[in-house]
Structures are given as C-alpha cells and as structure tokens.
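Hi R.,

Here's the input for the aspartic acid complex you asked about:
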Amino acid sequence: MLKTVKFGGSSLANGERFANVKKIIESDPARKAVVVSAPGKRFKKDSKITDLLYLCYAHIKYGVDKEGILNLIKSRYIEIAEELGIDIDLPAIFAEIDENLASGAGEEYLVSRGEYLNARLMASYLGYSFVDSKDCIYINYDDSIDKQRTYAALVNAFAEADKGIVVPGFYGTYPDGNVALMSRGGSDITGAILAAALEADVYENWTDVPGILMADPGIVKDPLPIPHITYAELRELSYMGAKVLHESSVFPVREAGIPVNIRDTANPEHPGTLIAESFDNEGDSPFFITGIAGRKGFSIIDIRLENMARKIGAFREILKIFEKKGIAIEQINSGVDAFSLLISTELLKPYLYQVVSEIQELCDGVRVTESISLLAIVSRRMVFRPGISGLIFGALGREGINIRLIAQGAEELNITIGVADSDFNRTINILYDSFTEKE
Ligand code: ASP
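And here is the predicted structure with aspartic acid in place:
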C-alpha cells in the first residue's frame, strides 16, 4: 500500500502544525511520498509566504531594498526549525539562495523557494529524502508536463530513498533548466503527478477543511462535508463557483484511476471526501444530492420571434451576433414564439446596446433582465429518479421564490435554476435544508 500525501500551506504554517503533520504521516506507514506547499497563514491577518515572495521580487524589480522582506521570510523558516529542533543548516541554504539572486535568478526561482525550503525542513524532520522538483518535474514551454521523463525521474528518486521522499510542490524545470512555476495552488498538481508516477493507491490531499462541503459555508451555516463525489460532479460544482479542488489540477490521478481523498489536518480521524470516477456502493451516501453551488451576475435576454420553429436559420443568425463579439452563451431555453439566452453580465455589458439593436433588426422583440443568479443542484443519483424538480419547485414555491429558469443537464447530473440575485442566498439555504432533511 502506498499513499501520496500533499499538505497545504495552512497545515504547515508554524512549528506546531508541522509537528501535527509529522504525526499524521507517521501514523500510517503507507504515507511514504509527501508533497508540501509553502507555509501559509498562521492567523487571519498573517501573510502567506508565497505572497511575500512575490512581493519580495517586486522589490527587486523596482529597485527597492529587499533585505527587510527577505529576512521576514527567512525568519518564518528559522522559527519552525528552532521550535522543532530540526537538524538543518539553514544559513548555508539561505546563502545559496542569496547568491543565485545576486547573479540574476528570476521571479519563478525566488517564488519557488517557498516550497523548496519547506520541503527541505520537512524532509529533515521526517528523516525522509528530499527530492528537488527541479530535478524531477519536467515542464514543457507550453506549461504541459513531460510525463514520460517526469514519471521516470520520480520513480527513480523514490526507489533510491530509504524511508520515503518529500517533494516541494508548485514548480518544476523548463527544458533550459530554469525553474518553471505552476499556476497558484499548483502543489495540488505536483501531488497528483507524484501519485500517478508512483501508481499510489490513493492521493491524500490534506487541507484545513473536513472535505468538500455540500454548500458554501459563507452562505449555509455549517454545511456537511460530501463523503463521496465523482470527478464529473466535481467539475459541475467547481464550474458553478464552488471553491473546491479543481478537477483539472488532479487530472493525472483521474487519468490513472487513483482516487483522491481530501482530509482535514485538524481532524485526522475524519474520513473527509473521497473523489473517484464512480462508486460501487451508492447506498453509503446519507443524502440524495451531492452538493449545491451557484454564481451571481447573469443576464437573461428574452427574444421574441413569431413562429420560430419554422424560420430556418433564424436561430443561427441571432447566435452569430454573440459569436462575433466573443460572448459565450451559458444556456438557451426555447418556447414556440420566444427563446431566452443566459449570459454572464460581465461579458455582455460592454456590448449590450449593440447586441440589443442587432437582435431588434432580426426579431419581433427583445427584453434584458439583469441580476440573475444561477444555481446548480448536483447529484449523480438524479438519473432516472423522478420527483427531484418537484421537490425544488415545491420548496421554493412555498417560500415565495420565483424561478426564472430551470434546466436539466444532458447527463442528468445537475438541475440548474435561475433566480434573482436578491434571492440567491435564501434559495441556496432552502434547497440545502430540503435536500438534507433525513429521507
Ligand atoms: N504556495 C503556492 C500558492 O500559494 C502553491 C500552493 O500552495 O499550492 O499558490
């Protein structure tokens, strides 16, 4: 059994949290391949090391003295090492970084030092081997991963280690040998790459929440974590604005058929959320739905066109107006003499008057309603199950919420509804409550 474990920055923000992570790793001998982020915030108003490193580079770029901020960054690592009595020569490592900066190392190099230093600390602390991503994660100039080379290098590094390995997240190396930084939050990708390369049994992604939540905790009070979610459902929820691990960031494990387990470092006994392609035993889930998510800021354009169905090509002409301006259409609903388009207000705004006048030339009437929110109720168990829209209409009808549009995804994985922005929070709460009442 092999588990690849990735720890986020907030789980590694100070000595105490480092010690907790060590306890988690040592409590399961399968946790032999570790990926770490840079230290995150210790308290609400604190700064993440990665942000400070970007700021430090801005000092260099604009010729402002960087020593103050660099020393602040270094002090975070010194504190962790001293608190835990980690045997590591930090001054020597800092000196090397200083030298590289003096000889012109760029932003990607400097910012990657956040993860690099944390991995060096964690490797010494655990007695695992440090494996530099610069020597193992090969990134092409188009930012794709050179899978073959990367996987081979990681397999080799793991085979050479006695106890286990610690790999810094968030960066790799370009073909010319320079540091290649991934997008923000990229340590999730590093963890997925490592899990796929080593063919791990599971990729554990340790963070500061008890899994993916069924709804936004900023809207619903104490939403429950989702025990099981499929990759397809995860895509739906993140597309609809849920701040969850992005499916694309764990693509390497999805491709390799390895499940992802989101876990909470503050509550290691909690099973968290398991993400997989599908689940054998659907009876395990306590509720019918998997989650609810939504986004504000849409506009509905109602277009009247008599006898629409018979006017061949009319539909296409209207859609072309949007296509020419690069405006993506989120949804289309149609009736006999009218249809409506749902569009992001931000995309539409700059062209609104132009679009309306062009539509008017082709149609019998047009009306725009702004401030619409879109909500998705996501569940893989919706397929062939009657009564779901009934439940939604019933619950919202009783509370006097007007549904502006409703649509079911082709794969019956979600039901999307549109309501006024002013009803957004209340709608999410009503739906959450009605779907989480014990069946
Ligand atoms: N430290 C980086 C960031 O803040 C990468 C990561 O945490 O995954 O985005």
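One thing worth noting: Residues 9, 37-38, 48, 50, 114, 169-170, 184-187 surround aspartic acid (CB under 6 Å).

Cheers,
M.
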